[in-house]
Amino acid sequence: MNISRRQLMILLPAAAVAWESVMAGTPEDAPNYKMTGHWWGMLIDIDKCIGCGNCVRACQTENDVPDGYFRTWVERYHRTDWPMTGSGPITTNPLIAPEVISPDGGKEGFPVATDESGKYFFVPKLCNHCADSPCTQVCPVGATFISPDGVVLVDQTYCLGCAYCVQACPYGCRYIHPKKEVADKCTLCYHRITKGLTTACCEACPTGARKLVDLKNPNDPIHAFLKTHSVQVLKPQMATGAKLFYNDLDGSVR
Amino acid sequence: MSVFKDTGHLFRFAGLFVLAFLIFLVVRHYVVPKSFGQYGHYRGAAIGEIAARPVKFAGHETCEMCHSDVAEKKKIGKHAQVNCEACHGALASHADDPATVTPVLPDTAVLCARCHTASAAKPKGFPQVDPASHYQGTPCKTCHQPHSPGIDAGGAK
Lengths: 254, 157
Fold this sequence. Notes:
The structure holds two protein chains of two kinds. By secondary structure, chain A is α+β, with helices and mostly antiparallel strands. Chain A is built from seven helices and eleven strands.
């Protein structure tokens, strides 16, 4: 076939238009779910957490999280008593240097504590689903993003595995999946919450220490809770717009 | 016309430039997914793909559709707030196909200890026992009915 330059100039844009119609199609969304009607977050009640590790196991089961990696994990803090003996100045500050343990992410629970001194508490951690997330801002290819309903997600077919986002997360909530070699993180069980279910960790929590919240739902008990409780987010000075709310969080938590 | 004399090389270059731009457009159409930019600087279809992943925890509402008797018993007991799959594990497969997928009954001697083993680290109001001295190896369900465990509340077997 002989094509002159003139014919080629006409054919190419025509081919481009034709290809566009071939590639056209709407992304499949979960039926009966309106992304614009939700703004997801989570409430964690420190006073209720018993450190059983049910959430960590449930998350691993639900999301096929590889061993040794965590989308959610539990830390046990021990804020020791102030050293009251000695004549010199007190050089250790338990509020600044608490003892923190998280054996295997707390998956199998924690060793029994017999030392009654100081203050113990458990801090479940997971992605804060920040509204102004540092991790999504550093992605060079647009593989991680904040969905219109406020969930920080990773498009694993698009991710290069460069791990910029892993470094950018101030909460340490991302990892590179050892098999897929792409960024992996908590999806706030997006496949569940879009179907009207709660997250796997909330479903498995025996004490109700974790609660999925929808900040756009006027009937969500979170609104009343936030009015009457002392609720904090982690690292507020980083202005990440974190939506993981901690009730009665101790000042020593980092 | 003298202005355009000996300018053929410029037009040829411009033509090449236009051609390269068109090729760029065609390649771009080919490599950039259709839904990219639908909601922002990412592939919009990814949201649907993530939402389409299979569910493994059925959720207590699903369990209660068939096991309403257990739900009633649990509602009045101390475990009212504990969801079914917190103890029984992820059972969406059982809910999807109850005939072939039979859940294994958890061993209460292990299961109960996960939450109720006494530790100074746990919140003081949470019921805790020292397994060694409390039941000395006897399975918990010998005395406590797990769905409504309080002995004084008629939950004892």
